[in-house]
From TrEMBL:
O-acyltransferase WSD1 C-terminal domain: residues covered: 294-437
EC number annotated for this UniProt entry: 2.3.1.20
Protein name: Diacylglycerol O-acyltransferase
Coiled-coil regions listed in the entry: none
GO cellular component: plasma membrane
Catalytic activity: an acyl-CoA + a 1,2-diacyl-sn-glycerol = a triacyl-sn-glycerol + CoA
Residue span(s) of domain O-acyltransferase WSD1-like N-terminal: 6-251
Keywords: Acyltransferase, Glycerol metabolism, Lipid biosynthesis, Lipid metabolism, Transferase
Pathway recorded for this protein: Glycerolipid metabolism; triacylglycerol biosynthesis; Lipid metabolism
InterPro entries: Acyl_transf_WS/DGAT, O-acyltransferase_WSD1-like, O-acyltransferase_WSD1_C, O-acyltransferase_WSD1_N
Length: 445
């Protein structure tokens, strides 16, 4: 393994982190257990397999003049490189039995990852009844996005029989001097990128106008975290989709909007006229870039029709907004601000990281992200994975983040909240389940 510079967006995630707002994402997987010792056996397996996954041995090192980069624009960057003396026991931890996986996961999600070693952890949580155990994976967002985190986690689970990946065509060797025949093409690309950046910046500025959010979605930095999880039947989601139209994702976003409405009304904050801006990330992987392991994200910025009392009308509004976003594409609009990271030199990320982190509240009000999972059954030590709740990082100034995964006929909502701002996270989780029932009822028999 060799070192490579962090991609611009990875560097941004690395630099906006603070003690109160750690930038790691997580996944809480629940496994069936045949005995009380299954959790301990799983921890031993994770520690034994981790050294065999190259990405898990990579640390991130801040550097002011990386040897591989000799341009002024690399000044102040960071590199991903093999960690000397890697010890998996620094990363895999076995905890005491618990009766509440989410309560324990919330406290563990509060703690930032240690930056001097590979930024990931696996916490094994045996169930007090001996029938189940859970594993909380934590990955720094500079190390992996949702798709990359899934790949790393799969490397320590039981092997799956998957088709061999198709080989990529070899890239031609880079010439020492640029090909002057491609100069017009490069100029056009540069002008196009500049125009796109101006378009994204203008759209982001306009999105801050006429905002009607809710104080319940705003939180000062407390450094505390709560997590919760909700599982709903995928067949129910498909029934709504087939009745009303749109996509599964449209229905899942509409469920969040309806749950926010119920939750705000129940806690006395009120939902009338509320239309918070939801950031919905979109993966834009480019396997042939210079940073094949780096984050490559864009996103859609969508107003959630929380103030609309009609569940089907809310779903129609979400569907219309998402269709409009897809027509425009993920490379433009206010949701694509993450793409601007490519236009900022490394030193700009280093110096401006704290300011960017504080600006998240001006850009959007709540994160609603989807993490794809394989449909094949996953196992650890022969124990089947039955539930998996993705957990998104909580941006500065936000009180709630929602992540969604579909696995084995179930949709799992993973919720992360500021512990002091949202002491009633379980009520919001219940509102998600109720909103699915509300949509089913509205669709009729």
């Amino acid at each position: 393994m060799t070192s490579d510079p962090l991609a611009p967006l990875d560097l941004a995630f690395w630099n906006i982190e603070s003690a109160e707002h750690p930038m790691h994402l997580g996944a809480l997987g629940v496994f069936e257990a045949g005995s009380p010792t299954a959790g301990a056996h799983a921890a031993d397996l994770l520690a034994a397999r981790a050294p065999g996954v190259p990405g898990l041995r990579m640390r991130i090192r801040d550097t002011w003049q990386p040897p591989a980069l000799r341009t002024p624009f690399s000044f102040g960057g960071a590199t991903r490189e093999p960690a000397p003396g890697f010890d998996p026991l620094d990363h895999v931890r076995l905890h005491a039995p618990t009766t509440d996986f989410h309560a324990r996961a919330g406290r563990l999600m509060e703690r930032p990852l240690e930056r001097g070693r590979p930024p990931w952890e696996a916490h094994v949580l045996p169930g007090a009844d001996g029938d189940r155990f859970a594993v909380l994976f934590k990955f720094h967002h500079a190390l992996a996005d949702g798709l990359r985190a899934l790949t790393l986690a799969a490397g320590v689970l039981d092997p799956m029989d998957l088709p061999a990946p198709r080989s990529r065509p070899e890239q031609p060797a880079r010439k020492l001097l640029p090909d002057v025949r491609r100069l017009p093409e490069r100029v056009r690309d540069a002008l196009s990128d500049a125009g796109r950046a101006l378009d994204i910046g203008a759209a982001a500025a306009l999105s801050t106008l006429d905002v009607r959010s809710s104080a319940a979605l705003t939180a000062a930095s407390s450094g505390t975290r709560r997590t919760a999880g909700v599982a709903v039947d995928l067949d129910d989601v498909h029934r709504v989709r087939k009745t009303v139209g749109g996509t599964v994702n449209d229905v899942l976003i509409a469920v969040v909007a309806g749950a926010l409405r119920s939750w705000l009304d129940e806690r006395g904050d009120g939902s009338e006229g509320v239309a918070p801006r939801a950031l919905i990330p979109v993966a834009k992987r480019r396997p042939r870039t210079a940073h094949p392991q780096g984050n490559r994200l864009s996103g859609y910025l969508t107003r959630l029709p929380v103030g609309d009392p009609d569940p089907l009308s809310r779903l129609d509004a979400v569907r219309t907004a998402m269709d409009r976003n897809k027509d425009a594409g993920p490379g433009r609009g206010a949701g694509a601000v993450a793409l601007l990271a490519d236009h900022v030199p490394a030193l700009g990320h280093r110096l401006g990281g704290p300011l960017v982190g504080q600006a998240a509240r001006l850009w959007f009000d709540i994160l609603v992200t989807s993490v794809p999972l394989p449909s094949l059954g996953l196992r650890l030590g022969g124990h089947p994975l039955t539930e998996v709740y993705p957990l998104a990082p909580l941006a500065r100034g936000h009180s709630l983040a929602v992540a969604v995964s579909t696995y084995r006929g179930q949709v799992h909502y993973g919720l992360v909240a500021d512990g002091k701002a949202v002491p009633d996270l379980d009520r919001f989780a219940l509102a998600l389940s109720r909103e699915v029932e509300t949509l089913l009822t509205a669709c009729g028999p």
